[in-house]
Amino acid sequence: MNYLQGDTLQDFIVTARDMKRDKVFRESTIRSLFDEILRGLRIVHQHKMLHLDIKPANVFITNDNKAVLLDFGAAREVLSKEGNFIRPMYTPGFAAPEMYRRDGSLGPWTDIYAIGACIYACMQGYPPNDAPQRLEKDRLSLSLSRLRNVYSDNLLEVTEWCMSLDPLSRPQSVFALQKELARETERRYTKLSFSERLKLQLENLKSGAKA
Known about the structure:
By secondary structure, the protein is mainly alpha-helical. The chain has a single domain (6-210), classed as Transferase(Phosphotransferase) domain 1 (Transferase(Phosphotransferase), domain 1, Orthogonal Bundle). Helix content is 45%, strand content 5%. It has eight helices and three strands; from the N terminus they run βααββαααααα. A three-stranded antiparallel sheet has the order 1-2-3. Helix 2 runs antiparallel to helix 7. The radius of gyration is 17 Å and the shape is globular.
């Protein structure tokens, strides 16, 4: 395998969160980053596979401005065949509700839930409540409503859409999610890559903390 140099998205989130600012990441940074991630995930799904363990610790941001999905140990070739298979270990907060059930139907919507949870973590600085907690008492809408003046309604709505407890209420494909995320991006973006945005934002945060 290729040797990669850089940091995980989790490292960036922890560093930015520790700056104790209103925004963990700028919205343009989040949109740019997940556009890159979704392009990779779309290829995974086109090969009839699911990742099933998408989380910030498994998103690697390289020094040459690329986002790479890591740890395919949980990946399963499930989109082209029927039948039982050994379900992977799940990461609380990022695992969709159907991953907790033996009879849960897994599909692209399962990885999309995890994408939504990652976007949530990029906005809040920490993971959302895990699915069993949400099934008992769902506070997702309340948590996102507190970010209304920080991030656009569109991004908050997309995050909630991805994290619907009902799999059929989520985007059913990566393409559908890409299309929605792109609606707000074209007029906002500069030519900076997402990695450059992350580094620039952290530098600004550090300089502001010293001032």
